[in-house]
Amino acid sequence: MTATTATPTGLPAHDRAALRREAARVLLTNWTGTSTVPSRTLYPHQWSWDSAFIAIGLRHLSPRRAQRELETLLGAQWADGRVPHIVFNPAVPLGAYFPSPDFWQSSTAGRAAGAPSGVETSGIVQPPVHALAAALVHERDPECSRRRGFLERVYPRLVAWHAYLLRERDFTGHGLASIVHPWESGMDNSPCWNGPLRKVVPVPAVSFRRADLVHSDPADRPTDLDYGRYVRLAADYRGHGYRDAGTPHAFAVEDPGFNALLIASEHALAGIAAALGRDPRPHRARAEALTDSLVRHLWQPHAGMFLCRDVRADRVIEEKSVTGLLPLVAPSLPDHVASALSRTARGEHFGLGSTTALVPSYDLRGDAFDPSRYWCGPAWFNINWVVERGLRLHGATAEADALRRAVLDAAGASRFAEYVDPHTGRGRGATDFGWTAAVAIDLLARHAHDRDQDRDRNQDHGRDQDRRERR
Protein backbone atom coordinates (compact mmCIF):
# COMPACT_ATOMS: atom_id res chain seq x y z
CA MET A 1 0.00 0.00 0.00
CA THR A 2 1.47 3.37 -0.99
CA ALA A 3 1.30 6.52 1.12
CA THR A 4 -1.60 7.90 -0.92
CA THR A 5 -3.71 4.76 -1.12
CA ALA A 6 -7.19 5.21 0.36
CA THR A 7 -7.88 3.23 3.52
CA PRO A 8 -11.14 2.08 5.15
CA THR A 9 -11.01 5.13 7.46
CA GLY A 10 -11.85 7.29 4.45
CA LEU A 11 -8.44 9.00 4.73
CA PRO A 12 -5.21 8.44 2.77
CA ALA A 13 -2.64 6.57 4.82
CA HIS A 14 -0.39 9.63 5.26
CA ASP A 15 -3.37 11.72 6.41
CA ARG A 16 -4.33 9.04 8.90
CA ALA A 17 -0.84 9.17 10.39
CA ALA A 18 -0.99 12.97 10.45
CA LEU A 19 -4.37 12.86 12.18
CA ARG A 20 -2.94 10.66 14.91
CA ARG A 21 0.06 12.94 15.35
CA GLU A 22 -2.15 16.02 15.63
CA ALA A 23 -4.52 14.29 18.05
CA ALA A 24 -1.54 13.25 20.18
CA ARG A 25 -0.31 16.84 20.11
CA VAL A 26 -3.65 18.03 21.53
CA LEU A 27 -3.57 15.56 24.41
CA LEU A 28 0.07 16.28 25.22
CA THR A 29 -0.53 20.05 25.08
CA ASN A 30 -3.57 19.79 27.35
CA TRP A 31 -1.77 17.62 29.91
CA THR A 32 -1.12 19.44 33.20
CA GLY A 33 1.17 16.92 34.86
CA THR A 34 -1.59 15.04 36.68
CA SER A 35 -4.60 15.26 34.35
CA THR A 36 -5.80 16.69 31.04
CA VAL A 37 -7.88 19.83 30.59
CA PRO A 38 -10.63 19.68 27.97
CA SER A 39 -9.52 23.07 26.62
CA ARG A 40 -6.71 25.37 27.71
CA THR A 41 -8.99 28.41 27.37
CA LEU A 42 -12.65 27.41 27.81
CA TYR A 43 -12.29 24.58 30.36
CA PRO A 44 -9.02 25.00 32.32
CA HIS A 45 -9.74 22.43 35.08
CA GLN A 46 -10.36 18.66 35.17
CA TRP A 47 -13.83 17.52 34.13
CA SER A 48 -15.20 14.14 35.16
CA TRP A 49 -16.54 12.49 32.03
CA ASP A 50 -14.03 14.34 29.85
CA SER A 51 -11.25 12.61 31.77
CA ALA A 52 -12.87 9.23 31.21
CA PHE A 53 -12.97 9.71 27.43
CA ILE A 54 -9.51 11.28 27.44
CA ALA A 55 -8.11 8.24 29.27
CA ILE A 56 -9.65 5.97 26.62
CA GLY A 57 -7.61 7.74 23.94
CA LEU A 58 -4.56 8.45 26.06
CA ARG A 59 -4.09 4.72 26.75
CA HIS A 60 -2.78 4.33 23.19
CA LEU A 61 -0.10 6.97 23.79
CA SER A 62 0.81 6.28 27.41
CA PRO A 63 -1.08 3.67 29.46
CA ARG A 64 0.59 5.00 32.59
CA ARG A 65 -0.58 8.54 31.92
CA ALA A 66 -4.10 7.26 31.18
CA GLN A 67 -4.08 5.51 34.55
CA ARG A 68 -2.90 8.72 36.22
CA GLU A 69 -5.77 10.63 34.58
CA LEU A 70 -8.37 8.44 36.27
CA GLU A 71 -6.46 8.19 39.54
CA THR A 72 -6.31 11.98 39.81
CA LEU A 73 -10.04 12.31 39.27
CA LEU A 74 -10.90 9.54 41.72
CA GLY A 75 -8.53 11.08 44.24
CA ALA A 76 -11.08 13.91 44.59
CA GLN A 77 -13.96 11.52 45.28
CA TRP A 78 -16.23 12.41 48.19
CA ALA A 79 -16.67 10.11 51.18
CA ASP A 80 -20.28 9.41 50.14
CA GLY A 81 -18.96 7.96 46.86
CA ARG A 82 -19.80 10.75 44.43
CA VAL A 83 -17.25 11.70 41.80
CA PRO A 84 -17.52 15.48 41.33
CA HIS A 85 -17.94 16.88 37.86
CA ILE A 86 -15.04 19.35 38.26
CA VAL A 87 -11.78 19.06 40.13
CA PHE A 88 -10.34 22.57 40.37
CA ASN A 89 -6.71 23.41 39.72
CA PRO A 90 -5.67 25.93 42.41
CA ALA A 91 -3.13 27.48 40.04
CA VAL A 92 -5.91 28.71 37.74
CA PRO A 93 -7.26 32.20 38.57
CA LEU A 94 -10.81 32.26 39.95
CA GLY A 95 -12.03 34.42 37.09
CA ALA A 96 -10.93 31.95 34.42
CA TYR A 97 -14.05 29.82 34.82
CA PHE A 98 -17.51 30.22 36.29
CA PRO A 99 -18.80 28.74 38.56
CA SER A 100 -15.42 28.81 40.27
CA PRO A 101 -14.35 27.08 43.50
CA ASP A 102 -15.51 30.02 45.62
CA PHE A 103 -19.04 29.46 44.30
CA TRP A 104 -19.17 25.71 45.00
CA GLN A 105 -17.46 25.96 48.42
CA SER A 106 -17.13 22.18 48.43
CA SER A 107 -14.71 21.82 51.34
CA THR A 108 -17.06 23.76 53.64
CA ALA A 109 -20.61 23.41 52.28
CA GLY A 110 -19.97 19.79 51.35
CA ARG A 111 -18.20 18.75 54.54
CA ALA A 112 -21.16 16.79 55.92
CA ALA A 113 -21.49 14.89 52.63
CA GLY A 114 -17.82 13.94 52.72
CA ALA A 115 -16.21 16.46 50.39
CA PRO A 116 -12.41 16.25 50.55
CA SER A 117 -10.65 18.97 52.49
CA GLY A 118 -7.47 19.06 50.44
CA VAL A 119 -8.95 19.89 47.03
CA GLU A 120 -11.82 22.06 45.81
CA THR A 121 -14.44 20.47 43.56
CA SER A 122 -17.96 21.06 42.35
CA GLY A 123 -20.80 19.36 44.21
CA ILE A 124 -22.63 17.72 41.31
CA VAL A 125 -21.68 14.76 39.11
CA GLN A 126 -21.48 13.73 35.45
CA PRO A 127 -22.26 10.49 33.58
CA PRO A 128 -20.47 7.43 35.03
CA VAL A 129 -18.18 6.39 32.17
CA HIS A 130 -15.23 5.82 34.47
CA ALA A 131 -15.31 2.05 35.05
CA LEU A 132 -15.57 1.48 31.29
CA ALA A 133 -12.58 3.76 30.82
CA ALA A 134 -10.62 1.98 33.56
CA ALA A 135 -11.29 -1.43 32.03
CA LEU A 136 -10.16 -0.25 28.59
CA VAL A 137 -7.04 1.37 30.04
CA HIS A 138 -6.17 -1.90 31.81
CA GLU A 139 -6.74 -3.94 28.64
CA ARG A 140 -4.33 -1.75 26.68
CA ASP A 141 -1.35 -2.76 28.88
CA PRO A 142 -2.29 -5.31 31.56
CA GLU A 143 1.33 -5.73 32.64
CA CYS A 144 1.76 -2.01 33.35
CA SER A 145 -1.62 -1.98 35.09
CA ARG A 146 -0.72 -4.92 37.34
CA ARG A 147 2.73 -3.57 38.08
CA ARG A 148 1.28 -0.26 39.29
CA GLY A 149 -1.67 -1.86 41.11
CA PHE A 150 -4.00 0.27 39.00
CA LEU A 151 -7.12 -1.88 39.24
CA GLU A 152 -6.60 -2.58 42.94
CA ARG A 153 -6.62 1.16 43.61
CA VAL A 154 -9.52 2.23 41.41
CA TYR A 155 -11.87 -0.73 41.87
CA PRO A 156 -13.13 0.16 45.39
CA ARG A 157 -13.57 3.78 44.38
CA LEU A 158 -15.58 2.82 41.30
CA VAL A 159 -17.73 0.47 43.37
CA ALA A 160 -18.42 3.31 45.83
CA TRP A 161 -19.23 5.67 42.94
CA HIS A 162 -21.87 3.34 41.51
CA ALA A 163 -23.22 2.60 44.98
CA TYR A 164 -23.71 6.33 45.58
CA LEU A 165 -25.79 6.68 42.40
CA LEU A 166 -27.92 3.61 43.10
CA ARG A 167 -28.36 4.43 46.79
CA GLU A 168 -28.78 8.22 46.85
CA ARG A 169 -30.21 9.01 43.42
CA ASP A 170 -32.97 6.43 43.01
CA PHE A 171 -35.78 8.89 43.74
CA THR A 172 -38.58 6.85 42.16
CA GLY A 173 -37.78 3.33 43.32
CA HIS A 174 -37.35 2.31 39.67
CA GLY A 175 -33.74 1.32 40.28
CA LEU A 176 -32.51 4.13 38.02
CA ALA A 177 -30.30 7.07 38.98
CA SER A 178 -31.73 10.57 38.64
CA ILE A 179 -29.84 13.74 37.81
CA VAL A 180 -30.50 16.86 39.88
CA HIS A 181 -28.93 19.44 37.57
CA PRO A 182 -28.80 19.67 33.76
CA TRP A 183 -25.00 19.72 33.94
CA GLU A 184 -25.07 16.23 35.46
CA SER A 185 -26.36 14.83 32.16
CA GLY A 186 -23.32 16.23 30.37
CA MET A 187 -25.82 17.64 27.85
CA ASP A 188 -26.22 20.93 29.63
CA ASN A 189 -28.81 22.88 27.64
CA SER A 190 -30.57 20.01 25.91
CA PRO A 191 -34.14 21.00 25.01
CA CYS A 192 -35.20 17.96 27.06
CA TRP A 193 -34.64 20.09 30.15
CA ASN A 194 -36.75 23.07 29.04
CA GLY A 195 -39.95 21.73 30.58
CA PRO A 196 -38.54 20.81 33.99
CA LEU A 197 -36.51 24.04 34.11
CA ARG A 198 -39.56 26.25 33.68
CA LYS A 199 -40.33 25.68 37.36
CA VAL A 200 -36.89 27.00 38.36
CA VAL A 201 -36.69 30.72 39.17
CA PRO A 202 -33.42 32.01 37.64
CA VAL A 203 -31.02 34.23 39.54
CA PRO A 204 -30.53 37.64 37.84
CA ALA A 205 -27.95 37.63 35.05
CA VAL A 206 -26.18 40.58 36.69
CA SER A 207 -25.39 38.38 39.71
CA PHE A 208 -22.77 36.29 37.86
CA ARG A 209 -20.08 36.76 35.22
CA ARG A 210 -19.78 34.13 32.51
CA ALA A 211 -16.18 33.42 31.58
CA ASP A 212 -17.28 31.11 28.74
CA LEU A 213 -18.44 34.05 26.59
CA VAL A 214 -14.91 35.47 26.62
CA HIS A 215 -13.60 32.43 24.73
CA SER A 216 -16.61 31.37 22.65
CA ASP A 217 -19.26 32.77 20.34
CA PRO A 218 -22.41 33.50 22.40
CA ALA A 219 -24.45 31.88 19.59
CA ASP A 220 -22.74 28.59 20.43
CA ARG A 221 -23.43 28.72 24.15
CA PRO A 222 -26.39 28.37 26.54
CA THR A 223 -28.31 31.61 27.12
CA ASP A 224 -28.14 33.85 30.19
CA LEU A 225 -31.60 32.58 31.14
CA ASP A 226 -30.26 29.01 31.06
CA TYR A 227 -27.33 30.04 33.24
CA GLY A 228 -29.58 31.85 35.69
CA ARG A 229 -31.44 28.60 36.27
CA TYR A 230 -28.27 26.52 36.45
CA VAL A 231 -26.88 28.85 39.11
CA ARG A 232 -30.12 28.73 41.09
CA LEU A 233 -30.14 24.92 41.15
CA ALA A 234 -26.48 24.68 42.13
CA ALA A 235 -26.82 27.32 44.84
CA ASP A 236 -29.88 25.59 46.31
CA TYR A 237 -28.07 22.23 46.33
CA ARG A 238 -25.09 23.88 48.01
CA GLY A 239 -27.43 25.46 50.56
CA HIS A 240 -28.59 21.97 51.56
CA GLY A 241 -25.03 20.76 52.03
CA TYR A 242 -25.10 18.82 48.75
CA ARG A 243 -27.27 16.21 50.42
CA ASP A 244 -29.63 14.25 48.19
CA ALA A 245 -32.06 12.98 50.82
CA GLY A 246 -34.17 15.74 52.29
CA THR A 247 -33.29 18.30 49.62
CA PRO A 248 -36.35 19.62 47.73
CA HIS A 249 -34.85 19.23 44.27
CA ALA A 250 -36.53 21.62 41.85
CA PHE A 251 -35.07 19.58 38.97
CA ALA A 252 -34.94 15.78 38.99
CA VAL A 253 -34.88 13.67 35.81
CA GLU A 254 -34.28 10.03 34.92
CA ASP A 255 -31.95 10.32 31.93
CA PRO A 256 -31.58 7.19 29.72
CA GLY A 257 -28.07 8.11 28.53
CA PHE A 258 -26.77 8.60 32.06
CA ASN A 259 -28.17 5.23 33.11
CA ALA A 260 -26.98 3.49 29.94
CA LEU A 261 -23.42 4.54 30.69
CA LEU A 262 -23.89 3.29 34.25
CA ILE A 263 -24.94 -0.08 32.79
CA ALA A 264 -21.89 -0.22 30.49
CA SER A 265 -19.64 0.67 33.41
CA GLU A 266 -21.26 -1.91 35.69
CA HIS A 267 -20.48 -4.56 33.06
CA ALA A 268 -16.93 -3.18 32.97
CA LEU A 269 -16.74 -3.50 36.77
CA ALA A 270 -17.59 -7.18 36.38
CA GLY A 271 -14.55 -7.56 34.12
CA ILE A 272 -12.38 -5.63 36.57
CA ALA A 273 -13.58 -7.80 39.45
CA ALA A 274 -12.74 -10.95 37.49
CA ALA A 275 -9.27 -9.59 36.66
CA LEU A 276 -8.71 -9.08 40.39
CA GLY A 277 -9.90 -12.59 41.24
CA ARG A 278 -13.15 -11.37 42.78
CA ASP A 279 -16.72 -12.40 42.09
CA PRO A 280 -18.06 -10.57 39.01
CA ARG A 281 -21.61 -11.88 39.42
CA PRO A 282 -22.97 -9.05 41.61
CA HIS A 283 -21.91 -6.50 38.97
CA ARG A 284 -23.48 -8.51 36.17
CA ALA A 285 -26.68 -8.86 38.17
CA ARG A 286 -26.82 -5.11 38.80
CA ALA A 287 -26.19 -4.40 35.12
CA GLU A 288 -29.02 -6.73 34.12
CA ALA A 289 -31.38 -5.21 36.70
CA LEU A 290 -30.55 -1.72 35.47
CA THR A 291 -31.11 -2.75 31.86
CA ASP A 292 -34.47 -4.29 32.73
CA SER A 293 -35.53 -1.17 34.61
CA LEU A 294 -34.34 1.12 31.83
CA VAL A 295 -36.43 -0.74 29.25
CA ARG A 296 -39.44 -1.01 31.53
CA HIS A 297 -39.58 2.64 32.53
CA LEU A 298 -37.93 4.74 29.80
CA TRP A 299 -38.35 2.77 26.55
CA GLN A 300 -41.07 4.40 24.43
CA PRO A 301 -42.10 2.24 21.43
CA HIS A 302 -44.10 5.08 19.84
CA ALA A 303 -40.91 7.17 19.65
CA GLY A 304 -38.64 4.28 18.67
CA MET A 305 -36.22 5.34 21.39
CA PHE A 306 -35.77 5.99 25.09
CA LEU A 307 -37.13 9.23 26.51
CA CYS A 308 -36.32 11.10 29.71
CA ARG A 309 -38.73 11.20 32.65
CA ASP A 310 -39.44 14.31 34.70
CA VAL A 311 -39.41 12.83 38.21
CA ARG A 312 -41.13 15.78 39.89
CA ALA A 313 -43.99 15.87 37.38
CA ASP A 314 -43.99 12.06 36.98
CA ARG A 315 -44.24 12.26 33.22
CA VAL A 316 -42.24 11.34 30.14
CA ILE A 317 -40.50 14.21 28.36
CA GLU A 318 -41.42 13.90 24.69
CA GLU A 319 -38.39 15.78 23.33
CA LYS A 320 -36.08 13.51 21.32
CA SER A 321 -32.43 13.81 22.28
CA VAL A 322 -29.40 11.70 21.46
CA THR A 323 -29.43 10.63 25.12
CA GLY A 324 -32.27 8.30 24.12
CA LEU A 325 -30.00 6.48 21.64
CA LEU A 326 -27.14 5.87 24.08
CA PRO A 327 -28.68 2.68 25.55
CA LEU A 328 -27.25 0.99 22.44
CA VAL A 329 -24.12 0.69 24.58
CA ALA A 330 -25.91 -1.69 26.97
CA PRO A 331 -24.78 -5.23 26.00
CA SER A 332 -27.98 -7.09 26.94
CA LEU A 333 -30.47 -4.67 25.42
CA PRO A 334 -33.31 -6.67 23.82
CA ASP A 335 -32.74 -7.22 20.10
CA HIS A 336 -35.98 -5.51 19.06
CA VAL A 337 -35.07 -2.42 21.08
CA ALA A 338 -31.54 -2.26 19.65
CA SER A 339 -32.91 -2.64 16.11
CA ALA A 340 -35.43 0.14 16.70
CA LEU A 341 -32.73 2.46 18.04
CA SER A 342 -30.61 1.84 14.95
CA ARG A 343 -33.58 2.68 12.72
CA THR A 344 -34.32 5.82 14.71
CA ALA A 345 -30.70 6.96 14.44
CA ARG A 346 -30.96 6.61 10.65
CA GLY A 347 -34.47 8.07 10.43
CA GLU A 348 -35.77 11.58 9.94
CA HIS A 349 -35.13 12.75 13.49
CA PHE A 350 -31.36 12.12 13.50
CA GLY A 351 -30.55 11.44 9.83
CA LEU A 352 -27.44 9.34 10.40
CA GLY A 353 -25.91 8.34 7.08
CA SER A 354 -28.33 10.39 4.98
CA THR A 355 -28.77 14.03 6.02
CA THR A 356 -26.05 13.91 8.67
CA ALA A 357 -22.70 12.13 8.85
CA LEU A 358 -22.63 12.29 12.67
CA VAL A 359 -25.52 11.82 15.08
CA PRO A 360 -26.81 15.25 16.18
CA SER A 361 -27.44 15.94 19.83
CA TYR A 362 -31.11 16.77 19.31
CA ASP A 363 -34.05 16.02 17.01
CA LEU A 364 -33.48 17.54 13.55
CA ARG A 365 -37.23 18.16 13.32
CA GLY A 366 -37.62 19.52 16.85
CA ASP A 367 -38.83 23.07 17.42
CA ALA A 368 -35.73 23.87 19.50
CA PHE A 369 -33.20 22.47 16.99
CA ASP A 370 -30.21 24.78 16.48
CA PRO A 371 -27.19 23.42 14.58
CA SER A 372 -24.69 25.64 16.39
CA ARG A 373 -25.93 26.05 19.97
CA TYR A 374 -24.22 23.60 22.31
CA TRP A 375 -26.56 20.59 23.00
CA CYS A 376 -29.51 21.91 20.95
CA GLY A 377 -28.40 20.14 17.77
CA PRO A 378 -24.63 20.02 17.13
CA ALA A 379 -22.89 16.67 16.89
CA TRP A 380 -20.46 15.79 19.67
CA PHE A 381 -17.51 13.45 19.19
CA ASN A 382 -17.68 11.60 22.50
CA ILE A 383 -21.37 10.87 21.98
CA ASN A 384 -20.73 9.56 18.48
CA TRP A 385 -17.99 7.34 19.94
CA VAL A 386 -20.61 5.83 22.27
CA VAL A 387 -23.13 5.38 19.44
CA GLU A 388 -20.46 3.78 17.22
CA ARG A 389 -19.59 1.37 20.01
CA GLY A 390 -23.27 0.56 20.55
CA LEU A 391 -24.00 -0.05 16.87
CA ARG A 392 -21.00 -2.37 16.62
CA LEU A 393 -21.98 -4.16 19.81
CA HIS A 394 -25.41 -5.00 18.38
CA GLY A 395 -24.18 -6.16 14.98
CA ALA A 396 -24.71 -3.00 12.89
CA THR A 397 -21.14 -3.25 11.61
CA ALA A 398 -21.58 -1.34 8.33
CA GLU A 399 -23.27 1.57 10.11
CA ALA A 400 -20.56 1.56 12.78
CA ASP A 401 -17.80 1.56 10.16
CA ALA A 402 -19.40 4.50 8.36
CA LEU A 403 -19.78 6.42 11.61
CA ARG A 404 -16.15 5.74 12.54
CA ARG A 405 -15.02 7.17 9.20
CA ALA A 406 -17.25 10.21 9.67
CA VAL A 407 -15.92 10.90 13.16
CA LEU A 408 -12.33 10.77 11.95
CA ASP A 409 -13.04 12.96 8.94
CA ALA A 410 -14.86 15.56 11.02
CA ALA A 411 -12.26 15.56 13.81
CA GLY A 412 -9.45 16.32 11.40
CA ALA A 413 -11.35 18.82 9.28
CA SER A 414 -12.54 20.80 12.30
CA ARG A 415 -9.16 20.97 14.09
CA PHE A 416 -10.54 18.74 16.83
CA ALA A 417 -13.49 21.00 17.51
CA GLU A 418 -15.56 20.69 20.67
CA TYR A 419 -18.59 19.92 18.47
CA VAL A 420 -19.72 20.45 14.87
CA ASP A 421 -22.73 21.51 12.86
CA PRO A 422 -24.36 18.13 12.04
CA HIS A 423 -25.19 19.18 8.47
CA THR A 424 -22.03 21.00 7.37
CA GLY A 425 -19.40 19.63 9.75
CA ARG A 426 -18.30 23.16 10.60
CA GLY A 427 -16.50 23.24 13.92
CA ARG A 428 -18.10 25.10 16.82
CA GLY A 429 -16.98 25.89 20.35
CA ALA A 430 -13.34 25.34 21.28
CA THR A 431 -10.72 23.72 19.05
CA ASP A 432 -7.94 21.35 20.16
CA PHE A 433 -10.57 19.79 22.40
CA GLY A 434 -9.42 16.93 24.62
CA TRP A 435 -12.04 14.25 24.13
CA THR A 436 -12.29 14.91 20.39
CA ALA A 437 -8.60 14.13 20.02
CA ALA A 438 -8.92 11.16 22.38
CA VAL A 439 -11.77 9.41 20.60
CA ALA A 440 -10.04 9.99 17.25
CA ILE A 441 -6.93 8.22 18.56
CA ASP A 442 -9.04 5.38 19.93
CA LEU A 443 -10.99 4.91 16.69
CA LEU A 444 -7.78 4.97 14.66
CA ALA A 445 -6.24 2.36 16.95
CA ARG A 446 -9.31 0.14 16.80
CA HIS A 447 -9.36 0.42 13.00
CA ALA A 448 -5.74 -0.72 12.89
CA HIS A 449 -6.57 -3.62 15.23
CA ASP A 450 -9.58 -4.65 13.10
CA ARG A 451 -7.49 -4.41 9.94
CA ASP A 452 -4.78 -6.62 11.44
CA GLN A 453 -7.38 -9.16 12.54
CA ASP A 454 -8.88 -9.21 9.04
CA ARG A 455 -5.41 -9.73 7.57
CA ASP A 456 -4.70 -12.58 9.98
CA ARG A 457 -8.07 -14.20 9.20
CA ASN A 458 -7.38 -13.90 5.48
CA GLN A 459 -3.92 -15.41 5.92
CA ASP A 460 -5.37 -18.27 7.97
CA HIS A 461 -8.04 -18.82 5.32
CA GLY A 462 -5.35 -18.86 2.62
CA ARG A 463 -3.26 -21.40 4.52
CA ASP A 464 -6.32 -23.60 5.05
CA GLN A 465 -7.11 -23.37 1.35
CA ASP A 466 -3.51 -24.34 0.44
CA ARG A 467 -3.70 -27.37 2.74
CA ARG A 468 -6.98 -28.48 1.19
CA GLU A 469 -5.55 -28.14 -2.30
CA ARG A 470 -2.40 -30.12 -1.39
CA ARG A 471 -4.60 -32.97 -0.21
UniProtKB/TrEMBL annotation:
Coiled coil residues, start to end: none
InterPro entries, sorted: 6-hairpin_glycosidase_sf (IPR008928), 6hp_glycosidase-like_sf (IPR012341), Glycoside_hydrolase_63 (IPR004888), MGH1-like_GH (IPR054491)
Keywords: Glycosidase, Hydrolase
Renumbered residue ranges of the record's region Disordered: 449-471
Gene Ontology molecular function, alphabetical: hydrolase activity, acting on glycosyl bonds
Pfam family, one: MGH1-like_GH
Domain Mannosylglycerate hydrolase MGH1-like glycoside hydrolase: 43-436
Keyword set includes Heme: no
Family membership noted in the UniProt record: Belongs to the glycosyl hydrolase 63 family.
PANTHER family membership: MANNOSYL-OLIGOSACCHARIDE GLUCOSIDASE
The protein's name in its UniProt record: Trehalase family glycosidase
Organism this protein belongs to: Streptomyces macrosporus
